[in-house]
């Protein structure tokens, strides 16, 4: 019989307080009247208004979203392919190198990834801007996607695919009609992961960007270096809000999908 | 044919954008700085041939790194900061993971969500949040003055202490999740057996729970240590001028001093240092996976 001891309760309370209080303070002070971020001077939403007037910030936000959409989409396609290769393709020439290249970027310090990609882009004379950030983000995000998708592929019942093939599906049809629907939740969470990683990235984007393309993290970093500002608090609050809504709805959707899948499986067992 | 295409597209992508860039870093780390565009010598020239090119490479940047004690100190202090904060994160994270694993079944998805949520929130924003807390006139100091625990504001921001707090805070979910996963898999009857056989609760914890969650502890420690070693954002936002970390040195070498060959050499050595923990981490993960099946 498990029972929470007083020690467990205290450590959970303190632990979650530690995780959440800094963010709550940040959110609270985005509604502060005063420019001083540490002294409360009454409720106001003026910093949100100022933020909406800030052309440079909005421009940066637009660039960031563009980069994130493109890179996470390409990364999802490439990462799913890579996962399929890792789990299904058996042996081929250079397989060890391939799986090494999938896992290495996950633990590579960002400064090294950023530096090396920048040196490549300069070496081949590619102008730095949105395109180079997309290439860089795609490369490291595809590795995360392939890890997420391959863990789903590995636990997947292959006989379903074989059945489809026996019943006359081509390999492509079997993938589209059987495999893809089953791994879809993993593909979606891979895409979401890639998207957030791209939104969040400061170091790699700083190395691979040019003067024409400033992303939001680069903008925030240069503002924050100088000190705290209520406008950045307002921006952070918006970003935290989006992530919270996103994570909670994603988990509700995946829970519902799981329930539905179980029901269908039971149904199938009963009718057979 | 289709299989060939399936393999070659991601393969070629990774070769071109992951492996080739490293070869370039390695090459430039062996080159000399030059006032040119790009700012290093020699650049590759097909006409001269590969041997003429190779003969111009040397280990000068690496000798420079060894002779100048700035770099030595930066590597050592990164190592120290990363190790210390990994241990601190373990001490903060383990009780949380343990509490989660013992919480009632119906709370757990909620608790998991609460740990994962910060992980999805911008890293930069979470580090920034501490700037307002740790500043001289920040909340922590206001609180300490109010309670009388301190009589004058403590200088925490822009010190190495702030870097420790920042690392523990941002990497905490990476420590909690693998430990929680290990504890969650554990069979509770083992604890009961130990207690029936005369173990006190404390010794059952040390002799059964801790060894059984070892895989999770190791995974969590590597997940904190490896990125903390090359960390740039935390030392540059929370640390002071005396906080030396190699990620920051590399950044400044590249962006401020514009010495590309030295920056590349710094990267090569950092990578060599990290190869050991990365390989150990992979081994641990493989072992965990095998024990699962």
From TrEMBL, chain A:
Keyword Cytoplasm applies: no
Locations listed in the record: Cell membrane
Residues annotated as domain ABC transmembrane type-1: 61-253
UniProt record similarity statement: Belongs to the binding-protein-dependent transport system permease family. CysTW subfamily.
Residue ranges the record marks as coiled coil: none
Pfam families given in the database record: BPD_transp_1
Lineage: superkingdom: Bacteria
Protein name in UniProt: Inner membrane ABC transporter permease protein YdcV
Membrane topology category: Multi-pass membrane protein
Record's keyword annotation contains Nucleotidyltransferase: no
Listed transmembrane segments: 7-31, 60-86, 98-124, 130-153, 174-194, 232-253
Keywords: Cell membrane, Membrane, Transmembrane, Transmembrane helix, Transport
Gene (UniProt): ydcV_2
Chief location category: membrane
Gene3D superfamilies: MetI-like
Record-level GO cellular component terms: plasma membrane
Single GO biological process annotation from the record: transmembrane transport
TrEMBL record, chain B:
GO cellular component terms given for this protein: plasma membrane
Compartment(s): Cell membrane
PANTHER family for the chain: INNER MEMBRANE ABC TRANSPORTER PERMEASE PROTEIN YDCU-RELATED-RELATED, PUTRESCINE TRANSPORT SYSTEM PERMEASE PROTEIN POTH
Transmembrane segments: 12-30, 74-98, 110-129, 162-183, 204-228, 260-281
Keyword Membrane tagged: yes
Entry-linked Gene3D superfamilies: MetI-like
InterPro entries cross-referenced by the UniProt entry: MetI-like, MetI-like_sf
Keyword Membrane: yes
Protein name: Putrescine transport system permease protein PotH
GO biological process: transmembrane transport
Organism in which the protein naturally occurs: Tritonibacter horizontis
Sequence ranges assigned to domain ABC transmembrane type-1 in this UniProt record: 75-281
């Amino acid at each position: 019989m498990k029972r929470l001891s007083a020690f467990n309760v205290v450590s959970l309370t303190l632990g979650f307080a530690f995780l959440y209080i800094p963010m709550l303070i940040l959110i609270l002070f985005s509604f502060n009247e005063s420019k001083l971020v540490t002294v409360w001077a009454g409720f106001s939403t003026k910093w949100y208004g100022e933020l909406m007037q800030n052309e440079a910030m909005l421009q940066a936000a637009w660039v960031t979203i563009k980069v994130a959409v493109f890179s996470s989409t390409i990364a999802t396609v490439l990462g799913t392919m890579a996962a399929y290769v890792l789990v299904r393709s058996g042996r081929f020439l250079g397989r060890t190198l391939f799986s090494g290249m999938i896992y290495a970027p996950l633990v590579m310090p960002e400064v090294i990834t950023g530096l090396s990609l920048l040196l490549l882009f300069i070496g081949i004379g590619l102008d730095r801007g949105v395109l180079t950030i997309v290439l860089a983000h795609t490369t490291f995000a595809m590795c995360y996607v392939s890890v997420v998708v391959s863990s789903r592929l590995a636990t997947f019942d292959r006989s379903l695919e074989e059945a489809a093939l026996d019943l006359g599906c081509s390999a492509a049809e079997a993938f589209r009609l059987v495999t893809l629907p089953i791994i879809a939740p993993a593909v979606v969470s891979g895409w979401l992961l890639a998207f957030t990683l791209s939104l969040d990235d400061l170091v790699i984007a700083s190395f691979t960007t040019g003067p024409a393309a400033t992303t939001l993290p680069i903008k925030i970093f240069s503002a924050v270096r100088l000190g705290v500002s209520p406008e950045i608090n307002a921006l952070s609050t918006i970003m935290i809000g989006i992530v919270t809504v996103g994570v909670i709805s994603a988990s509700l959707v995946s829970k519902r999908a799981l329930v539905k899948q179980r029901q269908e499986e039971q149904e199938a067992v009963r009718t057979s | 044919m289709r299989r060939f295409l399936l393999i070659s597209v991601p393969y070629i992508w990774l070769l071109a954008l992951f492996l080739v860039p490293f070869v370039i870093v390695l090459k430039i780390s062996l080159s000399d700085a030059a006032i040119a565009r790009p700012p290093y010598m020699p650049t590759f020239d097909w006409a001269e041939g590969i041997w003429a090119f190779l003969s111009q490479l040397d280990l000068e940047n690496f000798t420079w790194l060894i002779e100048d004690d700035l770099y030595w100190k930066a590597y050592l202090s990164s190592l120290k900061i990363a190790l210390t904060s990994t241990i601190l994160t373990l001490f903060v994270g383990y009780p949380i993971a343990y509490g989660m694993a013992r919480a009632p079944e119906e709370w757990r998805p909620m608790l998991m969500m609460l740990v994962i949520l910060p992980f999805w929130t911008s890293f930069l924003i979470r580090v920034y949040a501490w700037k307002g807390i740790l500043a001289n006139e920040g909340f922590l100091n206001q609180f300490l003055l109010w309670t009388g625990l301190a009589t004058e504001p403590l200088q925490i921001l822009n010190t190495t202490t702030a870097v420790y707090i920042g690392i523990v805070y941002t990497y905490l979910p990476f420590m909690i999740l693998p430990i929680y996963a290990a504890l969650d898999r554990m069979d509770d009857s083992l604890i009961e057996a130990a207690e029936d056989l005369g173990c006190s609760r404390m010794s059952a914890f040390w002799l059964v729970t801790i060894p059984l969650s070892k895989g999770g502890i190791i995974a969590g420690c590597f997940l904190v240590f490896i990125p903390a070693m090359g960390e740039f954002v935390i030392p540059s936002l929370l640390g002071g001028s005396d906080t030396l970390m190699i990620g920051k040195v590399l950044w400044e070498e590249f962006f401020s001093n514009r010495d590309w060959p030295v920056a590349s050499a710094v990267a090569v050595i950092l990578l060599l240092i990290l190869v050991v923990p990365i390989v150990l981490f992979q081994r641990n993960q493989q072992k965990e996976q095998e024990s699962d099946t």
